[in-house]
Glycosyltransferase (Mentha piperita), 472 residues
Amino acid sequence: TSSSCNLHVAIVSSPGVGHLIPAVVLGNRLAAHHGVRVVVFQVTTEASPPESKLLKLPLHQLVELVELPPVDISHLVGPTTQVVTQLCLMLRHARPLASSAVAAMDPRPAALVVDHFGTELLSIAAEFGMAKYVYVPSNAWFAALTLYLPVLDQQVEGQYVDQTEPLEIPGCKPVRPEDVVDPMLDRNDQQYDEYVKMGLAMASSDGILINSWEDLDHKTLQALRKNETLKSVIKTPVLLVGPLTRPVEPDGQNIKLMSWLDRQPNESVVFVSFGSGGVLPQAQITELAWGLELSQQRFVWVVRRPTDGRVDDAFFALSDGTDEAPTFLPNGFMGRVQNVGFLVPKWAQQVQILTHPAIGGFLSHCGWNSTLESITNGVPIIAWPLYAEQKMNATFLAEEAGVALRPRAAPVVGRAEIERSVRTLMEGEDGKSLREKVKQLKMSGNEALKVGGSSHNSMCEVLAKIASSKGQ
Ligand code: UDP
C-alpha cells in the first residue's frame, strides 16, 4: 500500500535455520506486499557457519541481509547448556553489535522487529526512538503460553511436568503437563528463567506478530481479543500475519528426486523429515525404517545419522548434504524398498518436495515452519514432535486444527504403530478427513494473505501504526 512505501524496518534474526528462514520470509513479505524497505540483521556465532552460507534464501530487492560480526559464548556454555539458554546468551552478546549497526544507519529504520529470543534487543529500539515488535514465528497458542508464563510462575507450585491437571491459560486450550515447551521442563534450569523473562519482555513491546491466521488459530485469537484476564496480562496487541512460508527454490541437484516423484501417483507418497535440528536415536531409526517398509506406502525420507545425545543435536550444526552410506539402516532395507522409497541424506529441498502433487502426507517433527509448509500445500501430517514447542504444535494440529494424527508416544515408537499411522494417513478414512480439513485450511490461509484478508489487514494495521509513530 502506498501509505507504507517510505517505511524502513530492521529485523533481527537469531541463529538457527528455523529462525533465519521466518525472518527473511517476513522481510520479503513486507517488501513485496507492502513496499517496505527491510534490513535483516543475522546474529552469527564463532561456533557454526552462518545459515545464509548454507541456504540459498532469495531476497526481494528491497531486502538486505546483513551478517553481524560473530559472537563467542563458548566460555559461557557447557555440554549441558540448553538450546534456549544458548540462544538467549548469543542474542545478549549481539546486543552491542546490533545497536552499532542500527546507529550507523541513516536514515534510521522506523521499527525494530526481533524474534522471541531477542527481546533484550528491544531496548535498542527505545534508545533510538523506534517502534518495537516481536515476531513469534509460531502459533498464537504458544505465544499465549509464553506471555502467560510469568503468571503461571507465581501460581504453580513444583515442576510443571509433575502437575496432575493441565495448565490453564485463560480462554485458551489448557496445556497438558506432558506437552509443555522445553524451557518449562525444569524450573531449576537457566533456560526456564530466560523463558520467563522472554514472556515479560514480549508484553512490553508495541505488538506481537504471529505466523498464523484467524481460521487456524481461532480459539486462541478469541481469548486474546475477549478474555479480560488474559488481556490484563498480555497488554499488547497480538497480530496474526501468516501463513508466511518460503517459496520454492529452484535447485538443480534435486532432479533425480523430482523425476522420481513425477513417476508416482498423486498424493501417494509420505514425506518423512524432522526439520533442521532433529535426529533420532539408533533404536528409533530402526523402528521407523521397519514401520515405513511394513506400511507398503511410498515414501521420501530425509535420513540423518543417529544420535547418542539430544534429539536437537543437529540444531547448530546444519549438515553439508554430503552423501554417506547409511550403515545405520536395517540390513537389506535399501534393496527391499528400492521401488517405493527414496532416501535423501541429511537435508532436502523441503518446500519443493511438499509442493509436488505426488506428496500425500508428511511425517513431521512439527516445527512451525514445516507445519505451515505442509498446511499451505494441503498435506496432512503425522505428528512426531521432538523438542522446543513441538509437542504443543502436535497437540494443536491433532486436537484443534484437525490436520494431524499422532502416533502413541513412547520412548521408542514401535514399527507396528508407525505402520498403522502411515497406512491410516495415506489410505484410511481418518486420513481422508484430515486431508479434507487441511485443504480447507490451505484455502483459508491463501485468503488471509490476499488484499483485504485478515492477515494482510493485520500487517497493514501494524505498518500504519509504525508510520504514525514515526511522524510524531
Ligand atoms: N528444511 C529443509 N530441508 C530439510 C530440513 C528442514 O528445507 O531437510 C527447512 C524446512 O523447510 C523449514 C525449516 O528448514 O523451513 C525448519 O524449520 P522448522 O520450524 O520446521 O523446524 P526447526 O528446524 O526449527 O526445528
